[in-house]
Amino acid sequence: MKYARLTKEQLEELHIEFANFLASQQIDQNEWQQLKVDKPEVAEQEIDIFSDLVWEGVLKSAQYIEHFSKNYIFLFQFDDKEIDTIVIKTTNNEIDFLTKDGLQWLGDNLYENDVEIRFGAKSFGSDRNGEIFDIIQQGGILSQGELYQQIKSILKK
After folding, report:
1. Residue 155: predicted pLDDT
2. Residue 85: what are its φ and ψ, rounded to 5°?
3. What are the DSSP calls for 45-107, one per residue?
4. What is the pTM assigned to this prediction?
5. Residue 123: other Cβ atoms inside 10 A
6. What distance lies between CA 72 and its chain's CA centroid?
7. CA–CA dist 124, 135 (Å, integer)
8. Cα separation, 94 vs 71, whole angstroms
9. How many CA atoms lie within 13 A of 80 on its CB side?
10. How does residue 157 score in pLDDT terms, banded at 50, 70 and 90?
11. Contact predicate 110/157, CB 8 Å
């Protein structure tokens, strides 16, 4: 497997797509039920293949990821070749960006000395999707990029 197996909940959400995937493998519902009983390792391989296909599609279209921690916010923007990053840090240990109050504080104090903002960019290596997946595995969440665009426009970067 290249990525991670989808959770049971994710598979349930994608049950129609999974059924179509099985149909493309010429496996109908009865055969699938039998496969799970008689050859569970083959059934798991089918789930793994489907999971990788889903991840490939998601990662290929990914453009933004946000990652929040107590004192940091990492905002990523992707194109086919580069990752652009905005890193926001507070040196005020009383602030927690994981809370609504912490984010409100950031909005009110963006230009204060307690807030450091850094910009960066790097080219993708040979595996763009793998690099994006690594960010997700570390706690990044796919987004529509509103916060990235907001911060970028406020700071005129």
Report:
1. 77
2. -130, 140
3. HHHHHHHHHHHHHHHHH--EEEEE-SSEEEEEEE-SSEEEEEEEEE--TT--TTSHHHHHHHH
4. 0.84
5. 8
6. 17
7. 13
8. 9
9. 0
10. low
11. no
